[in-house]
What does this fold into?
Amino acid sequence: MIDYFAIFLTHGLIVLVCWRLLAREDLDDPLAAPPPAPGKQGMRKRRGRDKGRGGDV
It folds into this structure.
């Protein structure tokens, strides 16, 4: 009995979260996204070789 309750509870919460996310009105509105934080320009560029990755020595 407890196993069925635990499975129902976790899956029920997952379904609830998905339903709430899909019901958002700003989901398809690109203008509703918050602006990027100042000073952050996406991913940083790598300099040189990655250390610890192996490769040619």
Q: What stands out?
A: The helical segments are 2-22. Residues 48 and 54 are 13 Å apart (CA to CA).
